[in-house]
Design a protein that fits this description.
The protein is mostly helical. The chain has helices spanning 2-65, 103-129, 135-162, 172-187.
């Protein structure tokens, strides 16, 4: 009889152990699949954000090329006038899980629209205080957008890396735009 009780306890222990370890194994698999899913979501988020920043940086390069002349001529009455619209940036249309992004990266990403708003506010003030020809205003506008374009580029590059892409995948248009921004930023210092 002791042998039957021992065998019964042994069978119970095996079932309990299998259930316990099976449950732990299932939980570990669940965690692994959850991690893989979050990794894929983070890659998707990174690519979506990088695409928006790419367009924004290219738009910034257009502003840095804008010398305020219409077909090479200064307007006879208005002087130098912006010919290229300011680039816009709106992350609100993205349906993504922002919590997957590292805290510092997320902070830097959300700084771009804040910095953009500050640029627009500075330009409104500069327009009132710059010389009447518009020349100083245009050059300040070019500098401010080259500055924010470089900031957005740093985040763009970080997102490419996070998304599993290399710098080699960057379009030629983007590379040219970045070269334009860097060149202008180095050579221009606004008068304050």
């Amino acid at each position: 009889m002791d042998n039957q009780i021992g065998m019964a306890l042994w069978e119970f222990a095996k079932l309990f152990g299998a259930g316990l370890f099976g449950g732990i194994g299932a939980k570990l698999l669940d965690i692994r699949f959850q991690t893989k899913r979050e990794e894929k979501e983070l890659n998707y988020l990174s690519i979506m954000l990088a695409a928006q920043l790419e367009e924004f940086v290219i738009g910034c390069s257009y502003v840095t090329l804008d010398d305020g002349k219409y077909h090479g001529q200064v307007h006879p009455t208005d002087g130098y006038v912006a010919q290229v619209p300011s680039p816009k940036l709106d992350f609100s249309s993205l349906d993504v899980n922002w919590r997957l992004v590292k805290t510092m990266t997320l902070h830097r990403i959300w700084q771009v629209p804040i910095k953009l708003k500050r640029v627009e506010e500075r330009l409104i003030a500069d327009q009132e205080w710059c010389d009447g020809s518009g020349y100083d205003y245009i050059n300040r506008r070019r500098f401010y957008y080259s500055e924010i374009g470089l900031y957005a580029n740093d985040i763009f590059m970080e997102l490419l890396k996070t998304g599993g892409l290399s710098k080699a995948g960057v379009s030629e248009e983007y590379s040219d735009a970045l070269d334009t921004i860097k060149s202008y930023y180095k050579t221009f210092k606004p008068k304050h």
